[in-house]
Amino acid sequence: MLGSFLVFHMHILLFSLGVVSTLDIRDVVFVIISQNNKYNLVLAENLKTSILNESKTLYNKHPVIHISCKDFPGDGGWTILPLITPLSNLHQHNASWVFFIQDYTNIRLNVLLSVFEKYNHTQEIWFGNALTDKVATIIHHFAFYKDPSFFRYPNFASGFSISMTLMIKLSDQWKNGKVGNSNFHIDSSHELSKFVWSDGDGPMIIHEKALCSSPLEENSSYQCLSIPNAVPTCDNLVPRQNIYFAVKTCKKFHRDRVPIVKNTWGKYATVIKFFSDTEDKLIPTVNLRIPNTETGHCAKTMAIIRYIIQDIENNNDIEWIIIVDDDTILGVANLQHILACYDPSEKIGLGERYGYQLHFGGYTYITGGGGMAFSKPLLEKLARNCKCSTLNEPDDMILGLCMARMGIEVTHSPAFHQARPPDYNPKFLESYEVVSFHKHYMLDPVEVYIRWFEAKDRMVEHIGNETVIHNEL
Description:
seven-stranded mixed beta sheet, six-stranded mixed beta sheet, disordered N terminus
């Protein structure tokens, strides 16, 4: 009798914690989106282990967990679309939901089933932390320019889930070649939503408040199921003297853009050089003797890379080389923080990842405006093996193609941004550490720097060969 009483009250307690559910934890397939580098794979494996251990404690069961780059290798898995068919084939008879999360997403498994039970998995349905655009933006190809606010897309950092019923339908769409008209993959979240929505024939994502973009969204009425880990959990900051900043400029911007760099983030760069088509001793600039082009800048960038290799030949301090435009706005301290996560002895190319014709044998590349970070070994390899056919080929795409041919994968960081702060949903920007923005168009770049980066840059001061943090970042 006492045993039955205890079992009953234990059941009530577990139900109040969200542990008892009519849905089984094995009905949910977890897909951790990660990348083939040591840092991200450690994050992914740690997250997988955490979910398995918590599930064992709560349910005495283990769910199926995939790590995208290990279980579904290929260059386009980060866009989600190539994963739909293999996941449907594997799990259409043994799962109700597929839950996509990033390797830096924190999960509270005790509330997962109570969140998922609110939705009918037999319907074509998906849910996540839904974002919208206030105005049409370049990162979304100016889609829905008449009223962009009606269209919802998920914040990948918070995770999102798709019913198996919808997964099967999407797999059929994919097999039938309904992949959209654009050759470029810029924002995979928005592009996935357009694929699912299918010009109104498919469902719009449902906003689920328990999939949070930051801890600030949580309140007493509900507990977050997922929260992005916005700050990388890495030990130290890379010392500033280990970073070489190369700023691309030209004569017409020597008097407006260059002073902004020098008076904002450039003050905190120990090694910084300005590369131009003209010598200007007041800056000073390095004259590459390559004519400026309105677009592309491939020849200029390759000349910069070869110059840097010679310039740092006897400088053993330099571990990272950052190539930026003269209208890139960045935070040096945040960059030091991000770079500390990666091994500079490896061939690492880090930045905001874009894709070109990924679903037709294409490749990924680091988009240049947000800044391109290269480890010294990779830059040496690029200098030896890459070249431009014309002056104005797109430098970032040529470098990406060259890396693909050498079998070197681009490392993506959501901290780098090709566009301006107003081009992103504020919740999206809350979910990550921010390293850079790009463009001075219709805003004050100094105000952007002050708003996003100045405080942290001022916290970090060089003393000899050590980096001292005055306040916690």
